[in-house]
## 1
Amino acid sequence: MSVTNRRGSARRRLATGAGVIVLLSLLSACDREQRRFRENPPSASPSNVRVSALQPGTVVDTTHVAGPYDNNAWAVSEGQRLFGWYNCSGCHANGGGGMGPPLMDDTWIYGSGPEQIYNTIVQGRPNGMPSFAGKIPTPQVWMLVAYVRSLSAQNASGARTSRSDHMMMYPGSGSLQDPAKPQQSFHPPASEMP
Amino acid sequence: MARCGPEASYCRRQALTFVTGMRLVVVLSVLPLAAACTREGKPEPPREAAAAALPASAGPRASVALDAEDGQWAMPMKSYSGIRYSQLTEITPANAKNLKAAWTFSTSVMRGHEEPPIVVNNTMYVLTPYPNILYALDLTLPGAPKKWQYEPKPQSEAQGVACCDVVNRGPSFADGKIVFNTLDDHVVAVDANTGKEVWKTKVGDINIGETMTMAPLVVKGKVLVGNSGGELGVRGWLKALDLASGKLLWTAYSTGPDSDVKIGSRFKAYYPKDRGKDLGETTWQGEQWKIGGGNVWGWLTYDPQANLVYYGTANPGPWNPDQRPGDNKWTSAIIARDPDTGEAVWAYQQTPHDLHDYDGVNESVLLDVPWKGQTRKALIHPDRNGYVYLMDRMTGELLSAEPFGYITTSRRVNLSNGSLEEVPDKKPEVGKVVRMICPASPGTKDWQPSSFSPRTGLLYIPHQNLCEDEEGVEANYIAGTPYVGMNVRMYAGPGGHRGELTAWDPIAGRPAWKITEKFPVWSGTVVTAGDVVFYGTMDGWFKAVDARNGAPLWQYKVGSGIIGQPITYRGPDGKQYVAVMSGVGGWAGAIVAGGLDPQDSTAALGFAAAMKDLPDATQKGGTLYVFSLP
């Protein structure tokens, strides 16, 4: 085999490799969230939010309000920053909990829906969750909601924050991209109330 | 020896131990530790106790003045000296194997039970964690039925500002009243006979993050209480309330100007580093001392002759040390005060500008020690930073400070100037992960109290063997929320075991023997004149060991992990009983009590990472267990 031939096959391999890389990046880009250039900040608080799944007799409705930022990568990453900024991480750690309950598992005392988490943050809860009404602006609360839901993989994977530069919190990847995806239940057993 | 790192002061002294040919029992017990020093970061499989049947202290012993034994247990420490020693002798190493459960009592509370029951006038008083229910049980009747219960009904929101589970470390009996603190910052006095509230005084505010978990000490008609909240930027204080009325008599802060700290003309620090005007203010930047911690959530002891109370202050806030330049006085310090006026008489800061959450709140047990031909009135204090401090309790002079666990964060305590010689490489920084910080933030030993036997001359220290990684992050102060600024994850220290019971010889300044445990030994210990030590494990074994050599005598599996303080008393039938609370939780057990998710290695300020297997080993739920010989 001549030198030229070897070089040629090397070039071909390189070209194929480059093609694969381009393809891969395109494919992964398909997974990204769509984002408009202008986003009106959400100003409204959700109404008629249920904190109980029990609706005596006929079930009127079971739908959740969509979080305005649920699939917005920028807002989720802002939510992550605010989660530290407002000391949420002081109680809930990086999702595993501490003084407060974990947020990355399948146990949701007051519901895992965006509107339920929103109300938990704003109203507070009597077993220890402080009320942040009047302390955190509404759009930022929704960013926190989006980030909190990402901890248990409840929003689109493309919107979730990527590998953190901090100390690796999770085994393996050190990334929030693929946390365990627990089945979301509405309520824990009553004995689990903290 | 040469292979021990420069920071491994513990290795050096173990090597010396070999050279001087100490007793076999010491050599056996230090072998795993010495071996571990050459293998930093590679934990060995768990080991069992290396206990040998040899007498404990052969040389001169520390002693303590004992009151006549009344068979009761009227305050968590039993006596002002804090020795947790009972003169009852019915249970011995020979018969302990016959111990049987006598009766049990459910507290109906699911969180961590760090408290001891107390026993006065044939009544047992059991105080629960939040919601701080006080039960009175009649010991004169079979099965000890309930006489009454008192519910202070603390604000449920207080649970949200309790750093490390909603624990309570016990009630105290004085002058016909049971006195205790509630999680939502009330001090309560209840009539011991009727269960009726005598007074209830609010002394703190949950909206700035204050809670109360410590056991009050009653001295000369004054109830001494302190606050918790070092993880929420709460300024620490000790307050005195009038036992009769509940009226506030004085407040002594741990930080701020001398007038607030109650440092006046009587104050004399032994070491120059602790001398100066308004150090509680000038060793901080600006007004950081107002949110700087130094809380008083641990143990107080009292010397009636000197009329001084001794206690330690907690860590400075936030944990991130770069945000609070200076020595941060008087956090992580030992303070001696006159209980009548609150005046400070001396203070010693064992960990200036704390880097790793090394609170100074552990017990200062009051002993008299033969020291270089003299008898010194001393206190012995096993600190979070890994050293057992032996100090002259009249002056604050250091007699010795020797490591009782594996330490990488400091080289030694310099006895000539009182300084802690830290290892600069182990200082946590923002944006940098520092590894193999030993001991971890809960320290070589946390709140769990030691006991001392004048018969063996040994201090029985329950503690942990943990190391950690730390990464500083910026902390924002928002009142009533955590003010920490540190990512932490903990793991077992050298040897791979996470807990130890160390029988410490105060004079020699080294362990007489050690028992290793899989999980941190988060329970207190109690020792008796029968030469039996009792303690519990987080996987639910209540154990009796021989006080002289650590030989296991008996164990009993209870319903939930033990983090409480065992006691012993004489029942109305004349028999000796041993009692302990079962109910896992606390900082170490938060993973079970709070249902935390260990996927996140920083859960529970990093403690959950070291306790991933605890949920498989125990369930939560509070129950009192009482044992006796048949």
Note: Chain A touches chain B through 38 residues (CB under 8 Å).
## 2
Amino acid sequence: MEKQLEDLKAIREMMEKSTKFLSLSGMSGIIAGITAIVGAAFAYFFLLNNVSTASVVGSDDFWMLLADALIVLFISVGAAFYLSMKKAKKNRQKMVKKVVIDTLYHLGVPLLAGGIFSLIFLIRGDIAMVASSTLIFYGLALINVSKFTYPEVHYLGITEIVLGLLAAVFLYHGIIFWTIGFGLCHIFYGLIMHLKYDLKKA
Amino acid sequence: MKNIIAKLNKAFESRIRLGIMSALAVNEALDFNALKDLLDVTDGNLASHLKALESIGYVQSTKQFVGRKPNTRYSITKTGADDFKSHLDALGELLR
């Protein structure tokens, strides 16, 4: 009886391990959220003030805005990558190459499309649409990748899409929705995942 | 009780074979190294279990070349999938 129970557990574990990326750390969501809020606050107070020149391509403010966005992206992705490796090591699970590639591919394709799409808006000076398009494409990317990881990622994706659509309606308050979506939502879902998966396993 | 135990498939008694079948049941195909990573076993050990599963017709392999390196991809056969499912059902029944 004991053996059969162990067998079933092993089967289940293997099926999950061979298809899912379970090294994603909740803490990386929290870090990404805080970074996004700091980045958005910087943009809001220093770059997007009343007489904004940030929408003029090639202006100093434009480059600052782009640099701000890229730094936020770099820190978030870097933290996610580092913490995933750490978690995998701690749980003594090898990151299976196939699963990592599947995950990156399904996340990356919509994200890259969205990134280029948003960049086109930015270059055309249509800065108001950027918040909406980044949120929507990010949400779609999350939903697309969620079948390979924790279910919370799916709900986060839906939340981001709703916020992105709202940002398109309330066009000139985009930064608020962006801060909620990339900041608060990341912290919220990151915290849930941290409590649910990371602490339990420790 | 005895009846149900008889339904458990002897081919899946080894934990490694069970692992191989579980991984192949939910993946279209996996190559040798992916299986090795998943199961954390030595080359020789994995190869002999794969060979055994292949000879009873549960697993099939296709060889191809990635650059110059030979790469063998394994997938589950129809018989393998059916028998694995019966084995799972028997396990579940036993524990109910």
Note: Residues 2-95 of chain B form a domain with the Arc Repressor Mutant, subunit A fold (CATH 1.10.10.10).
